[in-house]
Automatic annotation (TrEMBL):
It comes from Peribacillus cavernae. This is GMC family oxidoreductase. Residues 216-330 form the Glucose-methanol-choline oxidoreductase N-terminal domain. The keyword Oxidoreductase applies. GO terms for molecular function: flavin adenine dinucleotide binding; oxidoreductase activity, acting on CH-OH group of donors. Belongs to the GMC oxidoreductase family. InterPro entries: FAD/NAD-bd_sf, GMC_OxRdtase_N, GMC_OxRtase_C. Residues 163-182 are annotated as: Disordered. Keywords: FAD, Flavoprotein, Oxidoreductase. Residues 428-552 form the Glucose-methanol-choline oxidoreductase C-terminal domain. The lineage of its organism: Bacteria, Bacillati, Bacillota, Bacilli, Bacillales.
Length: 570
């Protein structure tokens, strides 16, 4: 039988970027907050001597244990969904800080076009453009200008370094940190792009370009360019992550209580408002009920959706009728890429997660789509993350996959290849969604989340277009051979592509087309706030973290208002 604990003002489900921000901001205002994290506690001290590619990058030390909880996957509804047994297409973080610990640190703002995508697309190209492509796009119920102050706050907290982008929305302040170093590699991309009439800029980075102290008093060291960012925690404390940038401050308020190894299985509610949550201590298997005035769900996209569906909170999406919301508009990203082989050598083994140059000339609606059979686009980047020997093994086409020639060419080209990649936008369609699996269950007997997703004609057309643009840039850079990454006929759960999953608890201006308002407050339960990329109605041509952070700060403001006055926020 579950033990009922004393009531708190706010309970937070998942303590990563979203949960850390909520804990810090609400704790500062005197609200009592309990943060429930199903993984273990961790921080910089746990990442000393972390340069172990096999342990962290290959065997996924920081990721979710799929033997205890996973999801099922299928391309279309007529197929039987099967469990994902190994991490592949995306890497779900587990433990304090969540995926914010093992990220690269790219911190873009979405384009103004993104937030009003339906209105702007219809205005420029007509309603038939959207209909003919079979897309379910919608405006977000908030504009870039309204969200800009919250972007600014998050960038100051995360110490983002960067420079102006020709296509960006207006900024109220410069970046709080300098851009990362320009290297011979990024400089080669920059020159080629400029020579082609494009507009390159230094990638916005959460890898500190110099020692930085954020508004919470968190001190972060300068990046060492060691090449161990993605899939690793930063042993130098030089990458903004929630365990460094926000959670220590939340705890210092005296109003934030962290409980690790606490897996929330249900949001308790009376049909109108939430009353608290039920959770299991994963070490002792004890079950608890934590009553609360306000419930804030800040876990990863998949878990946000699963928890709401499991709790029967909000109406599940039905692709047959198009009714319901929870699980709707699941989006991912497409990742076109090209590899260039050069005669000259580069120090490709050095780098940082966000050391790179980007062009936005083919992103959003920054180019004319009148005669194109897709909308949106993607950011094209050369990202010098630091190539590691196990996962980096490029050889020209036609090279044997083993033996003497393979070894010779692997060694030769290790420092003679460069990559370009596009983070391609993903548009929602009626048949890409999430629901609960009727067959498979987790270690606690609860149904797994089921993902139904496949590439669309929109995806393939966008992929082909940006692939061609990257090939042109790589040739301008002087590559003697250029190989393009092809798009598969169907999406598969492996290999790795990105961890940029979005949607399912989407944001909008009215309850008929969205699950939450622009304060991340649920229409169906006014004291429940759902924060994260799950609220994105579509996915843009960037990493989602900057927008997640901005929305978290707006939600914190809304929760504080709600705690005083109640009711739906305007």
């Amino acid at each position: 039988m579950a033990k009922t604990l004393p009531k708190t003002d706010v309970v937070v489900v998942g303590v990563g970027w979203g949960g850390g921000i909520i804990g810090a901001e609400l704790g500062k205002q005197g609200l009592k907050v309990v943060g429930l994290e199903r993984g273990k506690e961790r921080g910089v001290k746990d990442y000393y001597v972390v340069h172990d590619e096999l342990r962290y990058a290959i065997r996924y030390e920081l990721m979710q244990d799929l033997s205890k909880e996973t999801l099922t996957f299928r391309n279309v509804a007529k197929e039987r969904a099967l469990p994902m047994r190994q991490l592949g297409s995306f890497l779900l973080g587990e433990g304090l800080g969540g995926s914010g610990v093992h990220w690269n640190g790219h911190t873009f703002r979405f384009l103004p076009y993104d937030f009003e995508i339906k209105t702007e697309t219809e205005k420029k190209y007509g309603k038939n453009k959207i209909r003919d492509l079979g897309l379910d796009i919608q405006d977000w119920g908030i504009t870039y200008d309204e969200l800009e102050p919250y972007y600014d706050t998050f960038e100051k907290v995360a110490g983002i370094g960067g420079e102006d982008n020709h296509f960006q929305g207006k900024r109220s302040n410069p970046y709080p940190n300098k851009p990362m170093k320009e290297t011979p590699i990024t400089g080669k991309f920059k020159k080629a792009a400029k020579d082609m009439g494009l507009h390159p800029f230094s990638m916005p980075s959460a890898n500190m370009t110099e020692a930085y102290e954020n508004p919470y008093g968190a001190k972060m060291a300068a990046c060492q360019y060691c090449g161990y960012c993605e899939r690793f925690g930063c042993e130098y404390g030089a990458k903004a992550d929630p365990t460094v940038a926000v959670i220590p401050y939340a705890r210092s308020t005296g109003n934030f209580e962290l409980r690790t190894h606490s897996n929330v299985t249900e949001i308790l509610h009376d049909g109108k408002k939430a009353t608290g949550v039920r959770y299991v201590d994963v070490q002792t298997k004890e079950e608890f009920i934590q009553p609360a005035e306000i419930v804030v769900v800040t876990s990863y996209v998949m878990n946000n959706n699963r928890l709401l569906l499991q709790s029967k909170l909000g109406k599940p999406y039905d692709p047959k009728t198009g009714s319901g919301i929870i699980g709707k508009n699941y989006c991912y990203q497409i990742l076109p890429g090209v590899t260039g082989f050069f005669d000259e050598q580069f120090n490709t083994f050095m780098g940082a997660g966000s050391l790179g140059m980007t062009v936005d000339d083919y992103n959003g609606d920054n180019f004319d789509h009148s005669d194109l059979n897709f909308i949106h686009g993607g950011s094209i980047s050369l990202n010098q993350t630091g190539k590691r020997p196990i996962q980096t093994n490029y050889v020209p086409d036609g090279t044997p996959s083993w033996g003497k020639e393979f070894k010779e060419k692997s060694t030769h080209y290790f420092t003679r290849t460069l990559d370009l990649a596009t983070e391609g936008a993903s548009m929602p369609t009626r048949n890409n969604y999430m629901d609960l699996d009727p067959t498979y269950k987790d270690a606690f007997g609860n149904p797994l989340l089921r993902m139904t997703y496949d590439f669309t004609a929109q995806d393939r057309n966008l992929y082909s277009y940006t692939q061609k643009m990257m090939g042109n840039i790589m040739k301008e850079m002087g590559a003697k051979e250029v190989y393009a990454r092809g798009v598969s006929e169907h999406y598969d759960i492996v290999p790795y592509q990105s961890t940029h999953n979005t949607g399912g608890v989407i944001m909008g201006a009215e309850p008929g087309t969205s699950a939450v308002n622009n304060y991340s407050q649920m229409w169906d339960a006014e004291n429940v706030f759902v924060i994260g990329a799950s609220s994105f109605p579509h996915n843009s041509g960037y990493n989602p973290t900057g927008t997640v952070g901005a929305l978290a700060y707006r939600a914190a403001e809304g929760i504080i208002k709600y705690s005083k006055n109640g009711g739906m926020l305007a």
